[in-house]
Inverse folding.
C-alpha cells in the first residue's frame, strides 16, 4: 500500500474539481447571510458517521474507492448546478458508502442543501446571468434573469444586470457601426485602385473590433484586390 503522504494530496486535487462547479453561486448566496444551519438531526447524523482513521495507514480506503467517491461528489455538484437535487443527494449517498465521513462529501452536501433553497436558486441564476453577460451570450443571460425574476421580482441584482446587458449591447452596436464605416471606406478605396488606403481602412476596422465577423469577408476582398493590383504590374 502506498504511504499516506503520497495518497492524501490526490484526494484534495480530485475533490477540488467538483467543489468549483457551484462555487460562484454559493459565494453569492453565502454573502447574503441567507444560509441556515442544517437541522439538528442532520448534524447528529453527520457526527455519528464513522470516519477513516488517518493516523492508521491501513485504515485508509483504497485508492480506487477514494477516486470513485470524489468522482461521485463532482457529479453531485454538477447535478445540483442543473437543479437536480434529488439525483445529487443520491450521488453523495453513494460517496458516503464508499468512503464514510469524507469531508468533501459533507461540504458538498451542505452547499447543495443551500442551493436547493429559493435563495440558493436565486443566487445560482444571478451567477449564470453574470457569466453569460461576460461571454456576450445575451440569450442565456435573459433566460437566467427570467428565472431569477420568478424567485425575486424586485431584487436589485436583476435590474443591475439588465442595465449591464443593455449597456454592453449598445457598445457592441457602436463598434459594429464604426467597423462598417471603415470597411465602406476600404471598399471605396479598392474601387479607386488605391490599395494603400484600402489597407489603412481595413487596419482601422480591425483596431476597432478584431473579432467582428464582417472582417472575414473584407479580408477576402482586400486580398483579391492585392492580387489584381499585382497582376497589373
Amino acid at each position: 500500500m502506498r504511504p499516506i503522504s503520497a495518497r492524501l494530496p490526490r484526494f484534495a486535487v480530485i475533490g477540488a474539481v467538483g467543489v468549483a462547479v457551484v462555487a460562484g453561486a454559493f459565494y453569492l448566496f453565502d454573502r447574503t447571510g441567507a444560509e441556515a444551519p442544517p437541522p439538528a438531526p442532520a448534524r447528529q447524523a453527520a457526527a455519528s458517521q464513522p470516519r477513516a482513521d488517518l493516523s492508521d495507514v491501513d485504515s485508509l480506503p483504497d485508492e480506487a474507492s477514494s477516486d470513485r467517491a470524489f468522482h461521485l461528489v463532482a457529479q453531485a455538484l454538477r447535478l445540483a448546478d442543473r437543479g437536480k437535487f434529488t439525483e445529487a443527494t443520491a450521488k453523495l449517498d453513494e460517496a458516503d458508502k464508499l468512503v464514510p465521513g469524507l469531508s468533501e462529501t459533507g461540504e458538498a452536501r451542505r452547499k447543495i442543501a443551500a442551493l436547493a433553497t429559493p435563495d440558493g436558486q436565486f443566487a445560482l441564476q444571478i451567477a449564470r446571468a453574470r457569466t453569460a453577460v461576460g461571454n456576450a451570450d445575451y440569450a442565456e443571460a435573459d433566460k437566467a434573469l427570467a428565472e431569477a425574476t420568478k424567485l425575486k421580482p424586485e431584487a436589485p441584482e436583476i435590474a443591475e444586470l439588465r442595465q449591464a446587458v443593455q449597456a454592453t449591447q449598445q457598445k457592441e452596436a457602436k463598434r459594429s457601426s464604426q467597423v462598417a464605416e471603415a470597411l465602406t471606406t476600404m471598399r471605396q478605396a479598392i474601387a479607386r485602385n488605391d490599395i494603400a488606403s484600402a489597407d489603412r481602412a481595413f487596419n482601422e476596422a480591425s483596431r476597432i473590433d478584431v473579432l467582428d465577423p464582417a472582417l472575414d469577408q473584407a479580408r477576402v476582398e482586400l486580398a483579391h484586390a492585392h492580387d489584381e493590383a499585382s497582376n497589373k504590374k
